[in-house]
Design a protein that fits this description.
It is a single chain. The chain is mainly α. The chain has 4 helices and no strands. The protein has 2 domains: 51 residues; 50 residues. Helix 3 packs across helix 4. The longest helix is centred in the middle third of the chain and has 23 residues.
Length: 101
Amino acid sequence: MSDATNRERADRVDLSVLQYGIDHEGDRPDLEDTITDMIADLSHLAYQAGFDVQRIREVAEIHFAEELAEESTTWGVGLTDDEVRWVEEIIDRMEKTARDR
């Protein structure tokens, strides 16, 4: 993982997501819909390239959770109860997947 903050990580893709939304939805794209469509289309790209899409999604989700938790600890900003449960669920799924392999 890089030393970038989560804000910097989001900023890195901001313009790409906006352009993608404009290209597919017009001048005022809905951000949530655009991100959802972009994730789906990236999954198609990964599949066409022969990658394990589920594994990519799992690893990305783990990175997101770790980065969220790391920044929360580093900056002294606590996670909400829902965020803590979500991170714990990801860790549980990851451990279960590792056991099942």
